[in-house]
Design brief:
Protein name: Transmembrane protein
Keywords: Membrane, Transmembrane, Transmembrane helix
Organism: Rhodoferax antarcticus ANT.BR
Transmembrane segments: 24-43, 64-90
Structural class: mainly alpha
Distance between the termini: 35 Å
Number of strands: 0
Length: 110
């Protein structure tokens, strides 16, 4: 039994936007991470004119915000990547499903 019998007459759909998106996802992830880290680093200079208590609180709050942004970017790119892989698999070749003989297919029970 050949498990990977391709469907005769099937025309495979050409790959499109999902491949372009899959190629730029690592760049988007890296850019989002680096930009968030640079913003957190820059915040230390922007908030420098505050008092020490306010400075510590504002920097910590901004750091937590940037960690949230980074986690959001990672989760979003992972989700979009999984979607692209699913579309890529769905555009692949079609295979013939195995037939299943039903014993009462000609005479269904009432």
């Amino acid at each position: 039994m050949n498990w990977l019998t391709k469907l005769p007459g099937f025309q495979q759909t050409p790959y499109g936007f999902e491949w372009r998106l899959l190629r730029i996802l690592p760049h988007i992830t890296l850019a989002g991470t680096v930009l968030s880290a640079m913003a957190a680093w820059l915040a230390r200079y922007v908030f420098a004119h505050d008092s020490l208590i306010d400075l510590d609180r504002r920097i910590q709050t901004f750091d937590f915000l940037m960690i949230g942004v980074v986690v959001f970017i990672w989760v979003a790119t992972l989700t979009v990547g999984i979607g692209c892989v699913i579309v890529w698999l769905m555009k692949g070749p079609a295979y013939v499903a195995d037939g299943y003989d039903v014993s009462h297919s000609d005479h269904p029970k009432v």
